[in-house]
Amino acid sequence: MNLKRQLLVASLLMLLIPWAGLQFVLELDDALRQQARQHLREQAERLAETAGDLMIGMPAVASGEPAIYVEPLTGTINLDGYGDDWPGYDEENPLRNWQSSNASGSGLPTLHWQAATDQQNLYLLVRVTPRQPVFFNPGNPDQPHDRLRLWLKPDIQSVSPDQSALSWLIRTPAPGQVYGLIGATLKPDYRVSSFWQGAGDGWQLELRLPMPKGRSRLGFAALWGERGSGNREMAVSTPTDPLPVLVSRNLALERQLEPQLNRGQRARLVEPAGWVIARQSAASTPPGPKFNTLSPLQVMEQISLNALRALVRFYQPEPTAIQTGRNRIDTDTLPGEGLVRHEDDSVWLLTTRPVFGGRTLILEQSLDQLLTLSGSTLGSVIARSTLIIVALTLVLLGYASWLSWRITRLQRAVSASIDEDGRITGTVPDSRAKDELGQLQRHFSLMVDRLHGYNRYLESFSRRLSHELKTPVAVVRSSLENLSHCDSEAERRQYIERAASATERLRQILHGMSEAARLEQSLDHADKEPFDLAEVATQATAAYQALDSGHRIRYSGPEAGLQMTGSPELMVQLLDKLVDNARDFTPERGLIEVGLEATTDGLCLSVFNEGSALPESPATDIFSPFVSLREGQEQGHLGQGLLIVSLIADYHGGRVDAQNHTQGGIDGVCFRVIIPAIHS
In whole angstroms, what is the distance from residue 298 CA to residue 303 CA? Predict the structure, then answer.
């Protein structure tokens, strides 16, 4: 599995965190619903007791009993014959909140009405459709015309026994304002004011009269035609025996219920006939800020919260769909308790309780108030955690892709630098990155450069070795050929000496080739001991000068007192190789100076030789095996001396370098060996 896939798997494992959070939220949601259900039951019991106490002495509206529902007003109604200022007015569905009564005969118009009160006046909005009105003709009162007959039967518990039923007749010669006419006297009653208007394919009457007290009964009928004439009197009306009872909301009860409700709750008290006589609700949590005021992070958070809510709804039990009107509810279709879904797709937790008189209390809790379905702190934390984890996953994938691209690029560069036969054909570009991959690329670049130099030497090694062996082999061969043709002993001895000299040269070449290998093996068994490097350097330099009179060889440094731990024999061999290398590049009577001093890094042993300088940018490391800069000399060289110097320096924990140097006005090359000293 490649690095990108490994990081992808590791990133996907981080998704276990929001999954565990979602499981916790689902469990918490279930626990909250169970707790809310229990709390709702207890709260419904208390509210039912409160409502029952306040409804004592008020007769209930039985199922099937005719009634006119009176909606309380929150504003004012302009008596103009139009219904656009009535509660619940809907322009697209103007008859949505109306009650209606159809005549028993087919083909008759339909009577629609609404009722409202401001606690002082009773307002009625009556419509007959389809029916084009025939207006009252004052010049011919017996002529058939459309009219409205109104009956009122006061509540006997709220008025004196001598008050009887009242009736009014409303008719008009033309659309506009009109007053009610009392009973058979037809005297105007200015307390009953109305306004007659046409309404599409029918007519509409808006009227106002004093608000009856208690459970009074009110009925009305739309009439046309005339009794005793050829045109039979026709009518559509509310029930008349008995008259419909006026049902209105109990505002005192609603005020008692309000402080007992929690946020997101609503309670309704319903008569046995289904009429809502009390309705109260507590506001939900205020909505969040508007979309255009949210920051990008808040927008993403809201999206995550909505997704979280959708997941919670998905795992919730399926709510029961119910149909409830604004003013009337069929309690037989409601479940006793549980989750319900209203027409507006909102989900509520519902419970019902019986109330004195056969009434029903309906208490609902909005699920938007529960923890997982609201903008709560925990929901925000989980949503933000999900966003952070998704962002981290994308970052890790991007980072993995970047690493994979860098590794692939390095792999291609390394592969392109070596051909199928193993020859170095190019270089690996250096990297400026400071991380491990950058260091690896730099190491590869250095390795390829070293291998390139080593391969170049190997390619020239056969030529170098052939050149080195050609002369002694030719000498041996020619000496042996001439030896067979010699007549005198002196000539034979001469050829034998020449062959022996060439053979010795061959032995020295082979010895030099194996010297470095033998040294590496001997280093594994060499013992280290403390000794004075100054004494060793002083004595060795004196021996070099005695053996070589063609160069000026001298020592610069203390004669004693510089202690180190190692092998004095190996240090002498190191000096031998450095001085031999210096002789090869130093002209006749040139200067070779051996120096020794104590520095902060350790003991610095140096060999300076007068002569040609090193190349400014050597292609290969001169301390590597089989490397020599003696191109063009008559006698070849295998380049093992400086390799031996590097091996001995490494054995003593030191390092070696070479650089062009000017000393006392003389240009040349200085080789330095830095070796740790013994601190007293």
Answer: 9
Report CA 65 to chain centroid distance, whole Å.
61
The secondary element (H helix, E strand) that includes residue 661 is strand 655-663
Cα(10)–Cα(600) distance, rounded to whole angstroms?
50
To the nearest 10 degrees (0 to 180), the angle between helices 436-483 and 377-417 is 20
Residue 392 parent element (H or E): helix 377-417
Mean pLDDT check: name the lowest of 140-149, 369-378, 433-442.
Answer: 369-378
Whole-model pTM: value is 0.55
- Residue 487: count other Cβ atoms within 10 Å of its Cβ: 7
Complete DSSP assignment for 485-515: T--SHHHHHHHHHHHHHHHHHHHHHHHHHHH
Torsions phi, psi of 415, nearest 5?
A: -65, -35
Q: Taking the chain, what is the end-to-end CA distance rounded to the nearest angstrom?
A: 57
Q: What is the DSSP letter of 664?
A: T
Using only C-alpha atoms, the chain has a radius of gyration, in whole angstroms, of 58
| Length in residues, the chain | 680
- pLDDT value of residue 632: 45
Alpha carbons 111 and 309: distance in angstroms, whole number: 47
Measured CA to CA, the distance from residue 285 to residue 25 in angstroms comes to 20
User: Phi, psi at residue 489, to the nearest 5°?
Assistant: -65, -30
Q: Does the structure show a pLDDT above 90 at 96?
A: no
Residue 394: exposed, middle, or buried by beta-carbon count in 10 A (0-12, 13-18, 19+)? exposed
